[in-house]
Amino acid sequence: MLWRIDPAGDEPLYAQLAAQAHIAAARNELRPGDRLPAARELADSLDLNVHTVLKAYQQLRDEGLIELRRGRGAVVTARAATDMSPVQKALVALVDAARSANISTETLTVLLKEAMSR
């Protein structure tokens, strides 16, 4: 998995990392039992403070996507494989509806962001 952050973005850096892990799990790029990089390793590769990565990992743990195990690091849980399937189905339906209504990707993105901010 390739981790990317946008230091100039509005979203906090730890939240960007957590969101990428959720997206990777939804795309089945992260599977149960997979290990995420060590916090120091990921922080060094992205030129971040290690506490930023640890905060992202703690959020992912609190959301049930990963378990933090002493000596093994961050491990993707079995729950991660099932949590996103209803969302994926809803997204497919949303995209299909948007296409049939000739709504552009940009417009759909704005609509989705507005809906998420409510």
UniProtKB/TrEMBL annotation:
Q: SMART domains from the xrefs? A: HTH_GNTR (SM00345)
| HTH gntR-type domain mapped to chain residues | 11-79
**Entries under InterPro entries matching the protein:** Tscrpt_reg_HTH_GntR, WH-like_DNA-bd_sf, WH_DNA-bd_sf
The keyword Transcription regulation is annotated on this UniProt entry: yes
The GO terms this record gives for MF are:
DNA binding; DNA-binding transcription factor activity
**Transcription listed as a keyword:** yes
Chain coiled-coil ranges: none
Query: Which UniProt key words apply to this protein?
Result: DNA-binding, Transcription, Transcription regulation
Tell me the protein's name.
GntR family transcriptional regulator
What is the species listed in this Swiss-Prot or TrEMBL entry?
Answer: Actinoplanes cyaneus
Q: Upper taxonomic classification of the species?
A: Bacteria, Bacillati, Actinomycetota, Actinomycetes, Micromonosporales
